[in-house]
Specification:
The chain is α+β, with helices and mostly antiparallel strands and about 150 residues long. Helix content is about 20%, strand content about 25%. The protein contains five helices and seven strands. It has a five-stranded antiparallel β-sheet with strand order 4-3-2-1-6, with helices on one face. The protein is elongated and about 60 Å long.
Length: about 150
Amino acid sequence: MAPGAEAVIGRGLAVTGTELRTQSGGDDQPVAKLRVVTAPTREIRTSGQPDIDGAPGGILHGLGILADVLNEIPGFGVDNPIREHCFVLTVSAIALREPATHDDLYAPISDGELEETPFHAVRFASQNGTHTLITEGLSTWFLDQLP
């Protein structure tokens, strides 16, 4: 997904003007504008974080879950063009790199780097999937690892 893209947009009277965006890299990039009628508008901006929401790894439908709940509350309706985001980064899941930059997140992982992880064996899904999704391929690999 593109960094800085609109993910949740307030349309209901109570939240018109609210915007949640996918994480952009760098400093002082908009991430959220929170507006609820009863409170002052609050803006959240990046502070040296990489563009993490679209990184390789396990996906959570968190933005969609939030939107679905808000759409059930009168006055809190939202549009939700992006329903998911990276929840567990591949590089974090295998304790390979500190995800401080775009390259830390998106650079291909070499066989040599896999030997640096604290795990005896590592297997990646062929594409990003829902966090904790159990597929036939990963299940078969896992069972093959057992003594």
